[in-house]
Design brief:
This protein has seven helices and two strands. The protein is mostly helical and 151 residues long. It has one domain: Tetratricopeptide repeat domain (Serine Threonine Protein Phosphatase 5, Tetratricopeptide repeat, Alpha Horseshoe). The chain has a two-stranded antiparallel ribbon. α2 runs antiparallel to α3. The longest helix has 27 residues. The N and C termini lie far apart (56 Å).
Amino acid sequence: MKGRKGKNMLKHGIILATLLSISFTVGCGRSPQKQKQYFLESGKKFLAMGQPREATIQFRNALQIDPRFVEAYRSLGQAYYQLQEWPEAAAALSLAAELDPKNLETHFVLAEVYLNSRDFPNAEKEVGKSREKTPGPVRIPVAGCGAGGKR
């Protein structure tokens, strides 16, 4: 029984490696802009299929091409959010917030990540940053839900 399970794991590993190398090869014949966009879209497809681990690989591929690609950092943060890997989600979303400080949704999702990791002082800071940029009632998006409530 062990031999069969090992063969299946090896088979799945080979398939995943082949798919990733094909995606890399397909991307190599394109301009860097198209390559990073390809990896971003591929990662988003993995997220939509409920495969956040695979999505992180694609988002990281995009970031290797452009280390200042804000959307890839946001998406990487969302993938880690789905995996409930709070330190990694916080790191990716912090970089996204640093590169695009006016994006309120990034600050709110980062605050939510900090709340989930029980880092209340940083959660409060992120909410404060977004409140500074938005006078009046704010619609707060909740990661993974696609909806928000007024606060």
